[in-house]
Design goal:
heterodimer, A: 275 residues, mainly alpha, 13 helices, B: 163 residues, 5 helices, 84% helix
Chain lengths: 275, 163
């Protein structure tokens, strides 16, 4: 009782003591000492492990990275194979439903097979008489072959080449060439005929309209003079050309006409008359 | 026999004498040596002249009144030119010399004078355009004649075609 009172008094005496928290600040977590032993042991183990690891740290085996991709690929392949292996062991659908029937059928087949193997029995004394039988068979076949069913005619191989050549070459000669019609369609014929007519017509039309010679020949004067004979024209020109020296060659009928000479003379005559 | 033969001889003699005396009575017409050729030539020229007149008429397209006045003048003009040309051609056959040269020049000047004279005559009956057209038509007619002659000769001789 006194002690409590004394404590309270101290507080009044010393103001600084009032500011201090009266609760004990040093507390232990709950269950601390229960797990303390394990914690200490584990800490020791960790320390030991740390000491066991060399200071250089993690070392890499030699050629680790060179073989790494190969190792990874191999590992992947192995895992894939394992996956497949697991997948490969599949049971066909309805396997167990038909299993009893299949087993029963297999048993019956094997039984039948056992019976058949028992059926192949060698007759008694078979091998003793085998050689005699074979010889007799050979003799019989020889006797049959003497009839000569497979015989070659005389001189067959001498004429063989010629016969083959005759057959092959003659057949080739007799072969007729394949005729393929170029204009198989009737429409094509009519179209080509129409094109030809059009081309001819266009040519005639163009020539008639564009050629000055045709135009000249169709003129009034040309038509009128076409009824006049060469002698008439010559007589007229002989008396009606002012300078007849230049036209002597032109008007001389008996003279052989030189094309160059004639054209020159005509040009001169035209020049004279147009002056 | 003898008498009958004498009669026949006399009859034949009379016949021969009579035929000869009758032939003597036919009138003798003296013609130039190339008279027949001249006639033929004149006919040939006339045929060409007919075509020429048709062509000129077509080119000028004259009225009836103009035709009536124009064609007589044109024919006189044509005859005058033809006459001078004939003399000019005859002069070409003359021997060379001063006279031949002077005649040549004279005939050429005559041709020009005739054209001048008849041009005035034509102008009295036709407008100048038609007179000019008439001279052009004459030239073209002559050119066409030369062209036709050339073509026909080229065809007849199978030589090179006309250019």
């Amino acid at each position: 009782m006194n002690r409590d009172r004394g404590n309270r008094e101290w507080l009044n005496d010393y103001m600084s003591l009032k500011q201090v928290n009266p609760e004990n600040p040093f507390t232990v977590p709950e269950g601390y000492f229960d797990s303390l032993n394990e914690q200490v042991l584990s800490k020791i183990k960790v320390e030991e492990l740390k000491k066991s690891i060399p200071e250089t740290g993690f070392t890499i085996p030699s050629n680790y990275f060179e073989e790494l991709s190969g190792n990874i690929q191999a590992r992947v392949n192995v895992e894939e194979a394992l996956d497949k292996g697991t997948a490969a062991f599949t049971v066909p659908e309805g396997y167990f439903d038909e299993l009893t029937g299949n087993i029963q059928a297999r048993i019956s087949i094997e039984k039948a097979a056992d019976k058949e193997t028992a059926g192949f029995a060698v007759p008694e004394g078979y091998f003793e008489s085998l050689a005699g039988q074979i010889e007799s068979r050979v003799f019989v076949e020889d006797a049959l072959s003497e009839t000569g069913s497979f015989t070659v005619p005389a001189g067959y191989f001498n004429d063989l080449t010629e016969n083959i050549l005759n057959k092959t070459t003659l057949e080739k000669k007799e072969q007729k060439g394949v005729i393929i019609r170029m204009f198989s369609s009737a429409a094509f014929k009519y179209a080509s005929a129409a094109c030809l007519v059009l081309a001819l017509g266009a040519t005639l039309l163009l020539n008639r309209s564009s050629s000055p010679v045709e135009e000249h020949n169709n003129s009034f004067l040309h038509k009128s003079l076409s009824s006049i004979s060469v002698d008439d024209i010559q007589s007229y020109l002989q008396t009606h050309l002012d300078n007849d020296n230049d036209n002597r060659t032109l008007l001389d009928e008996s003279k052989q006409i030189d094309a160059n000479n004639l054209s020159r003379d005509l040009q001169e005559a035209l020049d004279t008359t147009s002056q | 026999m003898y008498k009958s033969g004498r009669h026949i001889f006399i009859v034949l003699l009379l016949l021969v004498i009579g035929y000869q005396s009758f032939g003597q009575l036919r009138p003798v017409i003296r013609r130039p040596p190339n008279f027949q050729q001249r006639v033929i030539k004149q006919q040939q020229i006339s045929r060409v002249e007919a075509v020429k007149e048709k062509y000129i008429a077509r080119r000028l397209s004259l009225t009836t009144e103009q035709s009536a006045r124009f064609w007589p003048i044109y024919r006189r003009y044509r005859d005058a030119l033809t006459a001078v040309r004939a003399k000019k051609h005859a002069n070409d056959l003359q021997p060379d010399g001063t006279e031949q040269i002077n005649n040549e020049l004279f005939y050429e000047s005559e041709l020009v004078n005739i054209r001048k004279f008849y041009t005035d005559e034509f102008l009295k009956v036709l407008p100048p355009e038609k007179v000019s057209e008439m001279f052009k038509a004459e030239k073209e007619f002559t050119n066409e004649l030369i062209r036709q002659l050339r073509e026909r000769q080229a065809v007849g001789s199978n030589s090179a075609p006309p250019s």
